[in-house]
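Consider this pair:
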Amino acid sequence: MRNMELMARWTEMGMVCLVLIASLGFSQAHRIDLHTHILPPFYNDWLAEQGYGPATLPAWSPSLHLEYMESIGTTTSVVSITTPGVGPFNNNSLATTRSMARKLNQYSYDELAKKYPGKFQFWATVTLPDVEGSIAEAKYALEELNATGIFLESNKLGIYLGDPAFDPFFQLLNDMHALVFIHPAKVPDVRTIPGLPQGVVDFTLDMTRAAVNLVFTNTTQKYPNITYILANAGGSVTLLAYRIALASQYYSLPVMIEEFKQFYYDTTFSSTPSAMPTILQFATPDRMTFGTDWPQGQVVGTAFYTQTLDEYPLDKSEREKIYRANAKGLFRRNS
């Protein structure tokens, strides 16, 4: 009941913010949103079987998604599922998990990208920590369905991206010059702070851990053809990069900083007056992309962050890069 009331309250506040944004008459049309999610009915039903009830899931449909895009001037949404992904769950076989990943990817192509050309693209779902299944699904989605790239969670069962167990999968991504969108997941074995959705604090920690692990395990250097986009502005990476680099026993400070600067950082939940100066200084507008986390982000203020980004003092060139030009460049690189 509390979750339902919280969702209703934030949805109402979000709609008010959207009306305010629309009334600003801003010139930020034609955004490309690299961070949005889908919840097709068959996936909702499947999640419910795993214990994720409808009270925790926002309403979603292609029509609702298109309405939201129009309300903020988005021309293209690149969609994915979100945590918990396709598991693994205790009551599912490996075959069931692989089947659900294929069904989600086929749906994203048939019912979104193909049916609404130019409006939707998608990040493909894979089945990590199942490396063999992930290799097969990534190849299929990228080669047969023209997926924009691969959706990965920051950790699966406590195994973080960059773990040597995932090397064969990352070798494939490197060979295919893949784009990878990294989304935070729940911090393993940590209780959520009472009264806060796990995405507010825990996701930030987990996103940071995954990005650092990719650098510290030499994954970014071993597989240089992979391009990474970090959701939520990389958690705390831009704030902690120098502290992390100075503590490293592996590489010099300039090398470590350069590795962190190779990531792209999306603006989701990060476009406040206190956060933007650090992100802009470290990542620069050349390595930032627009994201909203809709529809899940309604609970924690998607509309508010979109408004603060629209109101933040950026010059025309900087705004163009963040809202669409950088994303277009990534698409061209991947074509």
Summary: The chain is about 50% helix and 15% strand. The radius of gyration is 19 Å.
